[in-house]
Amino acid sequence: MLDTNTVSRILKGKSPATRAKLAALKANEIACISAITEAELRYGVARRPNSHTLLASLEAFFTKIQILPWGRDEAMAYGQLRAKQEASGKTLGNLDMLIAAHAIALGAILVTNDNAFAHVPDLSATVNWATDLSL
Predict the structure, then answer these.
(1) What residue spans of the chain are helical by DSSP H?
(2) Which residues pair with 127 in a beta bridge?
């Protein structure tokens, strides 16, 4: 599951290594994003109404990746995650917490370059494709 920062870096061409890793995925390795990530990306484009190129890139990306809905399992994972994170004093931003919960509910590896996710022990794994090309 790609987080918002990862997708943003791909779309802006800031990480050739990440783009190469996405392109090299095998048929049984499915890349996806959370509907929360889609919302964040759409917000980013809406803040730049004159960026037609970025919007076109985003729409093209959405046709090539699986966008997973957020539902009851994710809500249950979120409740547990937020309670644990608050108890430990290590909270994430609201949307990052929702994305982490989505990955937890799916048992998905979260592809991110955001170190904040390292403080979420319930994630099955995190990987930064910009620096770690193995998976």
Answers:
(1) 4-11, 16-23, 35-46, 52-64, 72-88, 94-106
(2) 111
User: CB of 130 within 8 A of CB of 113?
Assistant: yes
Rg (alpha carbons) of the chain, rounded to whole number: 15
Instruction: Let me know if domain 4-127 sits in CATH 3.40.50.1010.
Output: yes
Q: Which alpha helices (DSSP H) does 89-131 contain, by range? A: 94-106
Distance CA 31, CA 40 (A): 18
Q: Is 107 left (phi over 0), alpha (psi -120 to 50) or beta?
A: left
Tens digits of residue pLDDT in 19-53: 888 888 877 777 899 999 999 999 999 998 888 88
Q: Tell if the pTM clears 0.85, that is, is over it.
A: yes
Taking the C-alpha atoms of residue 27 and residue 4, their distance in angstroms, rounded to an integer, is 23
